[in-house]
Amino acid sequence: MTFIQGSCDAAIRERAARSVIEGRPRVDAVAGIEARAQRRPDDTSIFRSDEPTFDEILSVRAERQAMVTEFLDAATPALLAETRANPWGGDDWRPSVGDCARVILEEEWAHLRYVRRDLALHA
Hints:
Shape: globular
Helix content: 55-70%
Organism: Propioniciclava tarda
Number of helices: 4
Low-confidence stretches: 1-5
Structural class: mainly alpha
InterPro entries: DinB-like, DinB/YfiT-like
Domain DinB-like: 37-114
Protein name: DinB family protein
Mean pLDDT: 75
Number of strands: 2
């Protein structure tokens, strides 16, 4: 997996969690790249045919980080306790907004760890 693919996979999981928090339908593509775990051979119309540039990936990442920061600044205990629909469909699980926020933060932490590990290997 390339750095860009890893960044997109993490960003897609974060976007799914944000969609649940905001009560919106899930969107699985970031910068036109689909998550490897979400491949849908039947509909690729929303995806790019070319690789995004590194600058595009960094721009999308900065935009997503700003969205999370704004959300956390305004979050209240009552909001974090609210439940949302299962992002993967079905009614067997209704995550709280806090659960979704934790997914986003855990993904960010894991992403930072992997980047530091990979950069240390190339130092």
